[in-house]
Structure formats: structure tokens, C-alpha cells
């Protein structure tokens, strides 16, 4: 019987306490207190999500819509069985449909970032010079699309919006259910998706000079979310349990500051690398062993100041955090590495409160200006 199931797996049975393995018992207890969202809550959240998806796709396919969008693509931790906190958050790619004239060219100075060219007449007002599709213009267009969508009356649904940079985040409340939905514009090309997410050398999203002569303003980031989801969903349940426990610690009020700019996708990437290195199967009674190995690989990456993207090792996921001023780096990655290297796991697990993290209710509005 599985101990650590989620999604389509069981998550309601805890194995017997292992004598002489106090950390294993503590991890299992922590997992069920802090890293599992009740199945009924997840089911209700998905029902609300699917209603919003249905209405949004209906709106974007309406005859009044000038631009062409595809079916929303479901991505992120909630679809991988990795969500640990509420409100439950769902990531949705909003595909932009371009004609066969599309061309994608990688930026030499920035692995994983691409210029997208198109002569598609429908999208020409969203391009800059030489038919280069502008992620900044597309973000603004997506903002306008979501603004118009929110004017549609959905009885029983309270919807607010907040700008999350590349994503347009909707907070949807329906009865006792609250979910967050991130809508991210993307371009599909030859089996890959490219998202309008800002390069760290680009101008700020709302800068008046954001279309000036800064080539980093015009690149799109390749998304590996589909490949990632495929690998994660094939993993054993114990893999997900290790990551979810670490994510729950990182999300807690007691330890959020220690993790700083090390985010959940950094932790997930460490799990992907650990899984690839493991020549043996992960046994459920070895949860404590594999959890410590996951921490070890995170420390290793912090020491090297390098966390290679699992699907493109030319990309260092820590690079945006590493400042040209090395003292700033020391205040982020090094401090976290030192804390993690001397961690007392039993004490950390005991220190996390049973209270759920407080939901951030600031910055929401019914329309974006």
C-alpha cells in the first residue's frame, strides 16, 4: 500500500512506525500534516478551474476576437501532484496560433531564450522591426484580453486579477473554494513552447523604455514544463513525497526567509537530477535516506553556484540570482547553503506550525490599468 500518493494515487494510508528510524517517522508525520491537500479540496478546486477554462476558451474563440488562440495547456505543480499550500494554484499556457511563416532563432548570449519572427497578418501589430514578435506587446495584449473576459458575468464566481509580470493571475472564489490561475501567453513551434517571460537583463515590464534598443526585451523563454510534467508523473510516489516535504518547509512562515530566492522550481530541478543519478529504485521505508540525498544535491549546487536546467545544461537556473557584485551572492545563495549544511532536520520539522500560510490578499483588482 502506498504511503505518499497524490493525484490519482492514494494519500490516506500511513505505514507502521519504523523502530530505530525516528527521522522516517517524523517525515511521514510531517508529510500528512503539511504536504498533503485533502482530495475533496483538490477535486472542488479542479471543478472551479474547469469552469473558468471553459468560459475563457469560449470567449477567445468568439467571432469578436481578432487574435487566434489555442486550447489552454495545463501545467505546473497542481497537475504534477506537487502542490503543498493553499490557495491551490494552476498554471495555464495560452497558446498564440501563428501561421507557417514563423521562425525561431536562439539568442547567442542567452541559452534558452529565442527571438520569434512571423509575417502572420493577424499578429503584425504585435511585432516590432522585421516581423519580430514582441513578448512585451503580447503581454499587454493578453492583459487586455483578460480584462475583457472579466466583464463576462459568471454568477456565483468572484474573480479578481493581479499582474504577475508575464502571468495574469486570477483569484477565483466560488462558495468555499478559492484558487489562483496564472495565464501565461506562449507560442508553439515544432513541438516546443516559448513563453513571454522576462529575461533578467531586460527592462522592467512597466518601464516607459521597455521597447527601446535592448535586445533582451524581445526574447522569449523556451518552456520545458511539458517535458518536466512527463518525467514527474512517471516518478514513484516517494519521489514526490521528498520534494513536497522540502517545499512545505520552504513555504512555512518559520523558514521562508532562509530559502530566500531559492524557489520551488530550483527544488524540483534538484529532484530531477537526483532521480537521474539514482541507479536503484526508491523504497518507501528509505524516505529519510532519499530526503537527505535531495538536500545533499541542493547543497552541492549551492556550493557550485550552478544548478543546470535538467533539459538544457547550458542554462544555470541560479544565474538570475547571482549578482555581478559577489557580496550580494553571498547574502543569498551562500547564507542559504550555510543554513542548509548545518540543518537539524528533526528540529526543523518540529518547528513548522500546523497553521496554513496566510493568503496574500493585497494587490488584487477587478481590472488592470
Which descriptors apply to this entry?
369 residues; alpha+beta; Poly(a)-polymerase, middle domain; Beta Polymerase, domain 2; 9-stranded mixed sheet; two-stranded antiparallel sheet; 10 helices; 11 strands; 17% strand; disordered N terminus; disordered C terminus
Structural features, described:
With 369 residues, the protein is an alpha+beta fold. The protein folds into two domains: 22-34 and 235-351, Poly(a)-polymerase, middle domain (Orthogonal Bundle), CATH 1.10.1410; 40-221, Beta Polymerase, domain 2, CATH 3.30.460. It has ten helices and eleven strands. The strands form two sheets. Strands 1, 2, 3, 4, 5, 6, 7, 8 and 9 form a nine-stranded mixed beta sheet that branches. A hairpin with a 2-residue loop joins strand 6 (167-174) and strand 7 (177-189). The longest helix is centred in the first third of the chain and has 22 residues, at 39-60. Mean pLDDT is 84; it is low at 1-19 and 364-369.
Task: Lay out the secondary structure.
Layout: H1 22-34, H2 39-60, E1 73-75, E2 88-96, E3 103-106, E4 113-117, H3 135-149, E5 158-164, E6 167-174, E7 177-189, E8 192-195, E9 220-223, H4 225-234, H5 237-251, H6 256-259, H7 264-277, H8 287-304, E10 308-309, E11 312-316, H9 326-341, H10 345-351
Parallel strand pairs: 2-7
Antiparallel strand pairs: 1-2, 3-4, 4-9, 5-6, 6-7, 7-8, 8-9, 10-11
Helix pairs in contact: 1-5, 1-10, 5-7, 5-8, 7-8, 8-9
Amino acid at each position: 500500500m502506498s504511503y505518499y500518493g497524490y493525484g490519482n494515487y492514494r494519500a490516506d494510508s500511513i505505514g507502521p512506525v519504523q523502530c530505530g528510524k525516528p527521522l522516517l517517522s517524523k517525515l511521514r508525520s510531517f508529510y500528512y500534516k503539511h504536504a498533503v491537500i485533502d482530495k475533496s479540496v483538490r477535486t472542488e478546486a479542479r471543478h472551479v478551474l474547469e469552469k473558468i477554462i471553459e468560459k475563457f476558451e469560449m470567449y477567445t474563440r468568439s467571432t469578436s476576437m481578432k487574435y487566434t488562440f489555442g486550447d489552454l495547456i495545463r501545467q505546473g505543480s497542481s497537475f504534477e501532484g506537487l502542490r503543498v499550500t493553499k490557495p491551490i494554484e494552476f498554471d495555464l499556457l495560452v497558446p498564440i496560433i501563428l501561421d507557417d511563416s514563423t521562425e525561431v532563432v536562439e539568442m547567442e548570449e542567452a541559452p534558452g531564450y529565442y527571438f520569434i519572427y512571423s509575417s502572420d497578418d493577424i499578429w503584425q501589430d504585435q511585432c516590432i522591426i522585421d516581423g519580430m514578435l514582441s513578448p512585451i506587446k503580447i503581454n499587454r495584449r493578453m492583459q487586455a484580453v483578460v480584462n475583457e473576459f472579466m466583464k463576462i458575468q459568471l454568477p456565483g464566481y468572484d474573480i479578481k486579477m493581479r499582474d504577475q509580470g508575464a502571468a495574469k493571475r486570477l483569484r477565483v472564489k466560488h462558495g468555499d473554494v478559492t484558487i489562483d490561475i496564472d495565464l501565461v501567453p506562449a507560442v508553439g513551434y515544432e513541438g516546443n513552447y516559448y513563453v513571454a517571460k522576462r529575461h533578467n537583463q531586460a527592462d522592467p515590464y512597466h518601464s516607459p523604455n521597455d521597447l527601446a534598443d535592448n535586445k533582451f526585451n524581445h526574447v522569449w523563454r523556451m518552456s520545458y514544463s511539458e517535458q518536466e510534467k512527463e518525467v514527474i508523473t512517471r516518478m514513484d510516489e516517494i519521489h514526490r513525497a521528498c520534494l513536497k516535504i522540502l517545499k512545505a518547509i520552504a513555504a512555512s512562515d518559520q523558514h521562508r526567509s532562509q530559502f530566500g530566492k531559492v524557489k520551488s522550481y530550483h527544488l524540483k530541478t534538484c529532484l530531477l537530477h537526483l532521480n537521474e543519478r539514482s541507479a536503484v529504485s526508491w523504497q518507501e521505508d528509505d524516505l529519510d535516506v532519499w530526503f537527505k540525498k535531495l538536500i545533499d544535491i541542493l547543497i552541492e549546487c549551492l556550493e557550485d553556484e550552478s544548478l543546470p536546467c535538467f533539459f538544457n545544461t547550458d542554462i544555470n537556473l541560479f544565474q538570475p540570482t547571482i549578482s555581478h557584485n559577489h557580496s550580494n551572492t553571498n547574502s543569498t545563495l551562500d547564507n542559504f547553503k550555510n543554513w542548509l549544511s548545518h540543518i537539524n532536520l528533526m528540529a526543523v520539522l518540529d518547528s513548522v506550525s500546523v497553521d496554513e500560510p496566510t493568503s496574500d490578499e493585497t494587490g488584487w483588482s477587478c481590472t488592470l490599468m
